[in-house]
Amino acid sequence: MKYFICFLLTFFNLTFLEAQQKSSISELLTQKQIETIFTDTIKKEFKINYPIFRVYKYTDKSGNFLCVLTESNDSIANKKDTFNRSIRAINLKIDKNNFVKVWELNANTVKNERHENSIWFWTSYFDFKDFDNDGLVEPIIVYGTSAMNGFDDGRIKFITFYKGQKIAIRHQNGVLDDERQTQIDKAFYSLPQKLKDNIKSKMILMEKQRKAIFTATL
Asked: Which residues contact 49 (CB under 8 A, 6 or more apart)?
């Protein structure tokens, strides 16, 4: 394990230098890198039971991290559309000669009158950036669901990890106006302005892309 962690640290240092040159803090692992790092032993230790969808690596002044996204892949329709009943993300930090779990999130489809059929990570809205220039990355994770009317009655959730606190915006889409609801954690309003503006821009984009109609403004 010690040799393996040393290899990872070298890997992080090299890629972080490249990331600084490209002005991007995070980077995706390749499938080969995922298979090399996440052995059966590591998966068992951190209860990574679903297929790994993506892994983001990032570095800030506090250390080196891997954000692992997993989706349950319960069924496939039309040979291309994957349906998931559950998703799980786990953020791992390299600490000395081991991985240490920093945070995790779990979510599932819900059984109600909307009949949700799938849940998945909306990675096009992800960010791993240092919004307040304090040397620490503030991850933004977004996931959503589809139901009987696709996006029109699914759910969306934004999660921001800021200084050890998990802060969320929860949204329920609906076909009718009174079916839609947006809930914003009170702590969101204390976040740095650049971080709030970033999430606001994602919400505006979702509306333009006809994926949501939000009922609250930031």
From this structure: 43, 70
